[in-house]
Amino acid sequence: MSETPEPDRVEGAPHPRATARLLGQGAAEAAFLDAFNAGRLHHGWLITGPRGTGKATLAWRIARFLLAEQPADAGLFGAPPPPETLDVSPDDPSARRIAALSEPRLKLIRRSLGDTGRLRSVISVEDVRDLKSFFHLSAADGGRRVVIVDAADDMNPSAANALLKELEEPPKGATILLVAHQPWRLLPTIRSRCRELRLTPLGPEDIATALAAAGTEGAEAAALAELAGGSVGEAIRLANLDGTATYAAMIGLFSGLPRLDRVKAIALAETAGQRGAETRFDLTLTLFDAFLARLARTGATGAPPPEAVPDEAQLLARLSPDARAGRGWADLAQSLGARARQGRAVNLDPAALLLDMVLRIDETAGALAPR
């Protein structure tokens, strides 16, 4: 198992099934527990929210909770009290089997290896096809079964239709947990047959706590929390890629706006856009998005957000001094995002795409914050 790529894992972080604590999502946990304790456990649950906010961690917590050994009846003293949390002891036999992916009552559906030995780009119908036989396995526990689909957005049309059939006629004791980053991409009929648990972006304190558990603390954690937009997964990715140093260099490049240092701009574009530097290219696009979003927020609120790197707050305040400028930066963020998606779709030269984006930022700075 350790040699098989896991598409539902963020590099540098433990897999969600090994994450015991879920930060900042108490409302979603409480909603599920309320339904469970009231005897209204729905068969389909759609767990939504931004990437990196704990959706998969919640799905695995629910799976452990549902499959854990139930406490014995209290005899003369009545039934045991209803559970108040989803916590399950790591020593529970089912929890151990789940951690080892050997629990027969749990089915994990995710992108699998194709004939070439590489991960497929989608969840195929082959990954979903044996659900019916899985559900009909006999069990001494009354037939309780749990399915985790991570991520449901990855299903191709055939896989989605196969899953829909199981959602339409679910067997007794079955619970299907769908992790969805973009629920609007799912079939409306799938969404209508699930109850939604929506997770929200995490606050800086929760992200700092998660980063500390991963070994990143202090000023670096505070900066990553600012740049990650409420996503622990994104914060860990930025930490792995030295994102704060890259963002600091970007702020240095933009510090002269609207008088752009074109030599430095060309160097940035060529470095991040060179062949074999796809990871750095993606990181640069992510940080462009973060910079523009923070400019828009500064203009809309009248004050810059907490500084992610030195000298950032002064630059944000100068380039986005009012609501008009904030709207202009928001419009630019939307158009550059569409431009990046189109450029990737037609395999536009990455260096040319990045340089074009930098020049558009310089042009907008000249219009919104003239000399």
Which terms would index this structure?
single chain, 371 residues, alpha/beta, 7% strand
Walkthrough of the structure:
The protein is elongated, with a radius of gyration of 24 Å. The protein has two domains: 16-198, Rossmann fold, CATH 3.40.50.300; 241-368. Helix 9 crosses helix 10. The chain has a five-stranded parallel sheet. The chain is an alpha/beta fold. It has helices at residues 26-37, 55-67, 93-99, 125-128, 131-135, 157-168, 188-192, 204-213, 218-227, 232-240, 243-254, 262-273, 278-301, 312-319, 323-345, 350-368, and strands at residues 44-48, 106-109, 145-150, 174-180, 195-198.
In short:
This protein has two domains: 16-198, 3-Layer(aba) Sandwich (Rossmann fold), CATH 3.40.50; 241-368. By secondary structure, the protein is α/β, with parallel strands linked by helices. 50% of the residues lie in helices and 7% in strands.
Task: Give the topology.
Blueprint: H1 26-37, E1 44-48, H2 55-67, H3 93-99, E2 106-109, H4 125-128, H5 131-135, E3 145-150, H6 157-168, E4 174-180, H7 188-192, E5 195-198, H8 204-213, H9 218-227, H10 232-240, H11 243-254, H12 262-273, H13 278-301, H14 312-319, H15 323-345, H16 350-368
Parallel strand pairs: 1-4, 1-5, 2-3, 3-4
User: CA-to-CA gap between the ends?
Assistant: 59 Å
Radius of gyration of CA atoms, rounded to a whole number: 24 Å
The percent range for strand residues is 5-15%
Mean pLDDT: 87
CATH class of the largest domain: Alpha Beta
Order of helices and strands: HEHHEHHEHEHEHHHHHHHHH
**Strand runs, count:** 5
CATH architecture of the largest domain, by name, is 3-Layer(aba) Sandwich
Tell me the number of helical segments per DSSP (H or I, 4 or more residues long): 16
Q: Give helix % range.
A: 40-55%
CATH topology of the largest domain, which one? Answer: Rossmann fold
Number of domains: 2
Q: What does the largest sheet look like?
A: 5 strands, parallel
- How would you write the strand order of the largest sheet? 2-3-4-1-5
